[in-house]
Design goal:
With 199 residues, the chain is of the alpha+beta class. The chain folds into two domains: 70 residues, Arc Repressor Mutant, subunit A (Orthogonal Bundle), CATH 1.10.10.10; 111 residues, Winged helix-like DNA-binding domain superfamily/Winged helix DNA-binding domain (Arc Repressor Mutant, subunit A). Helix content is 45%, strand content 14%. The chain contains eleven helices and six strands. A three-stranded antiparallel β-sheet has the order 1-3-2. The radius of gyration is 20 Å and the shape is globular. The relative contact order is 0.12.
Length: 199
């Protein structure tokens, strides 16, 4: 791993305050084609104490999964989400982009604005625009930080219904959650949004 570009990419990632896209790295390194260097670095670090990983199109170093338990004490404890926030986050992840009315239709209950505020503040959810229906409701989607937090390269890596069931994460009484993961019926936005929706 003596190539100057590879070393420069490694240094840029190491010095960065957060994950970087290939385009950002290329801009830092005067337009260099960095993908081959990123792949070489990922291979180089595959068996080491840290790995170079891509999460949502952004590259970063992270502790090898089998060593994470050694560092748990030194890491800040993540915020624990309420059941409502967890449900809302799951709905957004599996059905994005979605409006609050769609989230409420899937959950079967109203969603407090504070619940979405918690997810926005955590950086796991973002506003991506407004639906082109009466009331122009805000629509939400997940962020690269969400993928990073849960160790996902992309939304395609979200667990399916069988994986969730095998992990014991499905409450047999909670049929609504199972319907969510399998894919709920499309929501009639026009009917839901007639009265408008507050942001």
């Amino acid at each position: 791993m003596s190539d100057d570009l590879t070393r420069a990419v490694e240094a840029a990632l190491f010095a960065s305050e957060g994950p970087l896209t290939a385009d950002q790295l290329s801009a830092i390194l005067n337009g260099a084609a960095v993908l081959p260097a990123l792949r070489m670095l990922a291979d180089h670090y595959a068996d080491r104490g840290v790995h170079l990983v891509e999460r949502g199109g952004r590259w970063q170093f992270q502790t090898a999964p089998d060593l994470a338990h050694l560092l748990r004490r030194t890491r800040e404890q993540p915020r624990r989400l309420s059941r409502a926030a967890t449900e809302v986050l799951a709905i957004i992840a599996y059905h994005e982009p979605v409006s609050r009315a769609q989230i409420e239709a899937i959950r079967g209950v109203q969603t407090a604005k504070g619940t979405l505020d918690v997810l926005l503040e955590a950086g796991w959810v973002r506003v991506v625009g407004r639906r082109d229906v009466p009331g122009r409701p805000v629509i939400y989607a997940t962020t690269p930080d969400f993928l990073n937090q849960f160790g996902l390269a992309s939304r395609r890596d979200l667990p399916g219904i069988d994986e969730l069931r095998a992990a014991g994460l499905l409450d047999p009484v909670d049929e609504a959650f199972e319907a969510l993961v399998q894919g709920a019926d499309p929501v009639d936005e026009g009917a839901l949004e007639k009265g408008g929706e507050s942001a």
